[in-house]
Write a structure and sequence with these properties.
Length: 470
């Protein structure tokens, strides 16, 4: 909910949540589980009207239930928070329509398709999603389409309101100095860790052997001599073993290997491909269901095993690269771009990234072999080439650069200036958004159900003419 910012770190965190304007109503309304008719009468009560748009009690309830199904922690005042956000969203969206901010049908459909794919990946299959929602995929899309359009309009309006807001170093310092010292958060040790990875390639003879095995397996699958799910449990893809090798894919998603996608979309429903080689290994792909650019496929992956000779050769190559870096002949980042087999390096650089996109990570985000390696390193050190196995169970070799390490500490301007600057900028944006809302709210018709006002006193600020802030 919108509020004046206090001095505690918990309130600082609430600013970031607010400025994201959580549009939780879309998912809840789209895939809510079917209810009895008697429940619908109560659940579908109109609890607010903004302009010519309504907010239903079922929107709020379904959003909370959807969050619980995803395993998210739901706060005690979730209904009030969601209602606050819904009201703000409606005002932003209506103003975006007045200002004719552009949101195209293609943008809406792309967002809609992406959300549906995420839901399918969460629940395991299209059938499981349809069963949970009590609707077909087409009905889910139809139910969510207008909500997604509203969400994108509201987001565009919010960007227009706050994108020009900037902050000076003096403002950052003044903001930080207002925080009581006993309210400053304590940060665990954080590290910047960069790496260059090589994935050794199997010998030609081993690849031919695996290819021959996959060709025989294809024949056995087609002749029903082998059960597909039983074969998939032996796949080298740990992410799909437990669901018979199944994935929901889209022709336009860039995250999929292009060879895998091209092969899959050449298949007819029920058809099994010949073994095909991607950057991961050899696949046999079965087309289960296709609808335009969306498809459900099953695959079995075999990764040709590498020998100690190939791993040793990769170690020698990486150690020579390490020597070039140590001698100043090439910078670590440039070497990573030139040599690393880790594709994320090309887009995000060689450093491991936190969930928020920062390169400062806590130790719990690193694999145990990496943690053991770093425990013996000082800041600035580059490790010797070390074999490892990644999350996809693929063997590789890496050198690791420990760029920085912070000690556990209270938040301070010296160590945490960037983080503090972001908090201070968010508060400044928050105040700009508050002022904008105070100016715009009186220009719209706004009704909130009396019972909702009683249960969520925070929403009264939307209709109270004496309010001074949010």
């Amino acid at each position: 909910m919108l509020k004046s910012v206090g001095s505690t770190f918990e309130i600082m965190l609430s600013i970031k949540k607010l400025l994201t304007v959580c549009f939780v109503l879309v998912s809840g309304a789209a895939i809510a589980q079917p209810q009895s008719n008697s429940a619908k009468v109560v659940a579908d009560k109109i609890i607010a009207i903004v302009g010519d748009r309504i907010i239903l009690n079922s929107d709020i309830k379904n959003s909370i239930e959807d969050a619980r199904r995803r395993g998210e922690k739901v706060p005690d005042d979730a209904e009030c928070q969601i209602m606050d956000q819904a009201l703000i969203s409606k005002i932003l969206m209506l103003q975006a329509e007045k200002d004719s901010l552009p949101v195209t049908d293609d943008e809406v459909e792309a967002d809609l398709d992406n959300r549906i794919r995420q839901y399918i990946n969460q629940v395991g299959s299209q059938d499981a999603l349809e069963e949970m929602a009590g609707k077909t995929i087409y009905q889910i899309k139809d139910d969510a389409r207008e909500s997604i359009r509203e969400q994108k309009l509201a987001a565009a309006m919010q960007r227009k309101v706050v994108d020009g807001v900037r902050i000076t170093p003096n403002e950052v310092t003044a903001w930080f100095n207002k925080i009581p010292k006993d309210s400053l958060p304590f940060f665990e040790s954080e590290l910047e860790v960069c790496q260059i990875i090589l994935y050794p390639k199997a010998s030609r003879d081993v690849e031919l052997y695996i290819l021959g095995e996959m060709q025989n397996l294809k024949k056995q699958l087609e002749n029903k001599q082998v059960d597909w799910c039983a074969a998939a449990k032996k796949s080298d893809d740990p992410g799909s073993r437990d669901r018979c090798g199944q994935y929901q894919i889209n022709r336009n998603e860039k995250t999929w290997d292009p060879v895998f996608l091209a092969t899959a979309f050449r298949l007819k429903e029920g058809e099994i491909s010949a073994p095909v080689k991607s950057k991961f290994g050899y696949h046999i792909i079965k087309m289960v269901q296709r609808n335009g650019d969306d498809a459900v496929v099953q695959h079995i992956l075999r990764i040709p095993p590498v020998t100690e000779d190939e791993i040793s050769a990769a170690e020698k190559k990486l150690d020579s690269i390490r020597t070039e870096i140590a001698n100043g002949n090439i910078h670590f980042n440039a070497a990573a771009t030139k040599y690393s087999d880790d594709e994320t390096t090309k887009f995000a650089g060689p450093c491991i990234m936190n969930r928020d996109g920062s390169t400062h990570v806590t130790i719990d985000l690193l694999d145990k072999d990496m943690v053991g390696l770093l425990s013996k390193m000082n800041v600035g050190d580059i490790s010797k080439a070390t074999p490892f196995t990644d999350e996809q169970e693929k063997k590789g070799v890496r050198i690791v650069y420990l760029k920085s390490r912070t000690e556990p500490h209270r938040m301070n301007l010296h160590d945490d200036y960037s983080r503090i600057s972001n908090f201070a900028l968010d508060q400044k944006k928050n105040k700009v958004l508050e002022k904008w809302l105070m100016d715009k709210i009186p220009t719209y018709y706004l009704m909130i159900d009396p019972q909702a006002q009683e249960e969520c006193p925070s929403v009264k600020k939307f209709i109270d003419p004496t309010r001074k802030s949010f």
